[in-house]
Design a protein that fits this description.
Radius of gyration of chain A: 25 Å
CATH architecture of the largest domain in chain A: 3-Layer(aba) Sandwich
Number of domains of chain A: 3
Oligomer: homodimer
Distance between the termini of chain A: 36 Å
Number of strands of chain A: 12
Structural class of chain A: alpha/beta
Order of helices and strands of chain A: HHHHEHEHEHEEHEHEHEHEHEHEE
Chain lengths: 351, 351
DNA sequence: CTGAAAGCGCTTACAG
DNA sequence: CTGAAAGCGCTTACAG
């Protein structure tokens, strides 16, 4: 910090009166050094605040690392997972020169078995770090257990599975995102008026996540002492026709002021509102995906709550890198910011 | 991309039937290579998509780079500039191992002369890249001209000065941030009701920026065809007493529904509203600074519009790095996202 | 216009 | 338990 001389292994070796090979052994906690020399070297390291040159380290080390990622495939239904994939690729480009290679695996969000098949493939390989989306909670736990058996650090993105020894989690804090959504809703509904929460999903595993958001949403009004009416609609299909039918039922003879969709499927609701030419219902939902953006721009959707899926994956990979290459401590939980996107600021948003 | 062999200077030299020194000359556009060999080498580079190993490059190059930054000092009045400083320091830590050292200079936002004094000091040194906040437009232009004379690339953050040959600008797009603010206001005021815009500043140079935001703000209502009344208050002092007086005048016998402050000084307005126990006026302003946050948390301030000042500085430094170290093209204008911060999502925000 | 050699700060066998 | 030497992929003088 105060402009000290920068020293290297050579200088340390000289001062300690040993060879650089011995210094290297101490620096990297390799075995086979007497306690006396070890201490002598460590003292010098401390005194001069020696910082290894990471460039030289990676260049000299012929050891290559293999990172593996396992996330949902981009599907026709949603291009959401394109963003995390982009984040992985950005990280890949950045750490490639440091001798790290990537293997990318994908599973089908509608087919739990594909997740299992893929993780079994991964476990057969020689990998140094894993990043995955634990979309199917139980299977994710099994995968995690296998990783631990093999002492492979693993990182979660997008959703967390508490109670495991993952290196870290990078993603949203769901409760607060629902809570934030409620604040926005609060500018739109008045006392006595109605809001409608809609959960659209056919994967049982995702219900937990949706309900966390819902809890946050409800908590806001409880805490603020607002007397709005909250209705709820569960839709267990993800095709427009089913959703259309459900909405027709729910909105009939009903004076809903605002709809809060707990995941990225609000484009279906928007499609419905547009089709029926309903203009006096505000709509808030999640995620910066193509289908939502077009409705945001035309004003059918009022707010999108987003959590930088690209950055999630990028940071997740970098956590593995920090741990395995830089040997740094990693913060276990890294919550993303809760971003509020409107028609006006969306063009500046980096998803 | 398709798992080709990774080749290095050695392989290229071998294939071209020359020495690696010659390859190096071509790769780095140094003089003294015949056109024939140059072409031969470039063809191989292209054919194998040779990517230089940046680690080895920096390690081998004994050339050190000096980056200089010139930003406002953190003052009693506002800790805003702490964030960009943190961003610079983060970038510094990251690129230090690549042989880059930093000199940080500061000026007083209330004293234009300090900016001039500092930049003259900088110009006397041997520097390779400069990042600065062009708060005083004319003086910034002079500084920029000197940089160009010396062929030193320079980057702007926080506010732009169009028409110059800066390497890039990283910061907000002001018009759109005002426009976004208006959208939020629009949920609060109804037709026929009143909004108040307040510009608080005593630096004439900053007025341009405030007015850009104001233009965006007004444009929204014009475009949406909303018939709200917009009043405006100019305050040319930045102490509470002056502001208190101005507010008392402006709010007397007036039914303002929402106040939009065009910079970070809304904490003064919040202080006033709190003091006078006025609860039915919503307040929107700029910037994630301590003084605003406390009012945000108690609900006096409804929304804060923020633009990641830390990331601005970080990205600004990295632009110099990309240009000078990686020899990459740099996008000239890099607008930050326009972030909407509420009581609920503020604790997840990374300013 | 071109090449042989040393070196950047580390790690990695190998030898003792 | 320890050291001498080669090498990672580049750049930098120096010599021709």
């Amino acid at each position: 910090m105060k402009g000290e001389e920068i020293i290297g292994v050579k200088q340390i070796a000289q001062m300690a009166g040993v060879s650089i090979a011995t210094v290297d052994r101490v620096l990297n906690n390799r075995i086979g050094v007497s306690e006396t020399t070890k201490k002598k070297i460590n003292d010098i390291v401390k005194k001069y605040n020696y910082q290894p040159n990471i460039l030289a380290k990676r260049l000299a080390s012929r050891r290559l690392l293999k990172f593996v990622t396992l996330i949902p495939a981009v599907s026709e239904e949603t291009d959401y997972w394109q963003a995390p994939l982009n984040g992985i690729e950005q990280a890949e480009a950045e750490v490639k020169p440091f001798g790290i290679s990537f293997d990318k695996y994908y599973f089908d969000l509608n087919d739990k078995q594909t997740f299992i098949t893929q993780y079994n493939k991964i476990l057969k390989k020689n990998v140094d770090g894993i990043l995955f989306a634990p979309s199917f909670v139980e299977d994710a736990k099994n995968f995690a257990a296998e990783c631990e058996k093999r002492k492979i650090p693993y990182v979660f993105i997008n959703s967390d599975v508490p109670g495991l020894n993952n290196l870290c989690y990078v993603g949203p804090e769901l409760f607060s995102s629902g809570y934030t959504g409620a604040h926005l809703v609060n500018y739109i509904v008045k006392d006595g008026e109605k809001a409608l929460i809609i959960n659209i999903s056919k994967i049982p595993d995702s219900l937990y996540h949706l309900e966390e958001k819902e809890k946050g949403f409800r908590k806001f009004f409880k805490k603020e002492g607002k007397k709005i009416e909250i209705e709820k609609l569960e839709i267990r299909e993800t095709d427009y026709l089913s959703i259309r039918k459900a909405l027709t039922g729910a909105l009939k003879n009903n004076d809903i002021k605002v709809i809060f969709v707990t995941n990225s499927r609000e484009f279906y609701v928007a499609q419905y509102l547009k089709e029926k030419k309903i203009k006096n219902i505000a709509l808030i939902g999640y995620d910066f995906i193509e289908k939502n953006l077009s409705y945001l721009e035309t004003g059918v959707i009022d707010f999108l709550i987003c959590q930088k899926p690209k950055a999630q994956a990028y940071r997740g990979v970098m956590a593995l890198y920090d741990k395995l290459v830089k040997n740094e401590e990693v913060t276990k939980t890294h919550y993303m910011s809760i971003d509020i996107i409107t028609k006006e600021n969306c063009k500046f948003y980096k998803n």
